Sequence to fold (232 residues):
Amino acid sequence: ILRGSVARPHLKPYMASLQLDGQHICGGFLIAEQWVLSAAHCTEETDGKLFQVLLGAHSLTEPEPHKRLYQVRAQFPHPGSNIHNNKDDLLLLQLEEKAELNADVRVLPFQREDRDVAADTVCEVAGWGTIDHSGTRPDKLHQVERPVISRDVCNHRTRHDGTITRNMMCTDSRRKDTCKGDSGGPLVCGGVAEGVVTAGSRVCGNYKKPAIYTRIAPYADWIDSVMASADG
Ligand SMILES: O=C(O)c1[nH]c2ccc(F)cc2c1NC(=O)[C@H]1C[C@@H]1c1ccccc1
Fold:
């Protein structure tokens, strides 16, 4: 998160850190007791290894009361996701067991109504991604508020030039922005997850390249079917 602030500890109890060998790779969030939603691109360099999912954390390194690392039973990248573009950039992770819910570990509801969030709506996004242009990696969760920009503005020739589909949405990236390591985290508007930070490589903090999110509502049926099928 560029030019945001340290989050209030454990006030975003749905946040997950997707890790490999103890290293934060991407964000994610708890959508059900045994399920975390993230971004499919985050699995690109894992050569088949499964993530571990850290829940209940504020600091990535310090001991905290409800912090717990969960094994993943199975990972389900959206079948339409691919390395060439940001389409269908969603990943469902089934935890090895149901997460123990408490003050620091809670499910975040996601939007099921497929209607665009109005431009200028201020939403918030959090993560353990880079916090400056030198790529400094924070130990504590950071957050930032960002206004939604319309798909037409985001698709302008000088911005994302028509690549933003109706299954995506954008926020203004002037100065304050998401960045590497924040991918997979939720864009929360009015207490509901409306989008997932896409994990395609992208410049951060440049107003010419707004942040891109996968809208969740269009995928509600896919999410429900995967959770129902995998004895979730
Ligand atoms: O965050 C992303 O956009 C993104 N997209 C990817 C695609 C493939 C892929 F193998 C990884 C990623 C990845 N995450 C990262 O590189 C994470 C490792 C870097 C990081 C940055 C800040 C703080 C901690 C760790």
About this structure: The first helix runs from residue 151 to 154. The mean pLDDT is 97. Residues 3 and 176 are 5 Å apart (CA to CA).
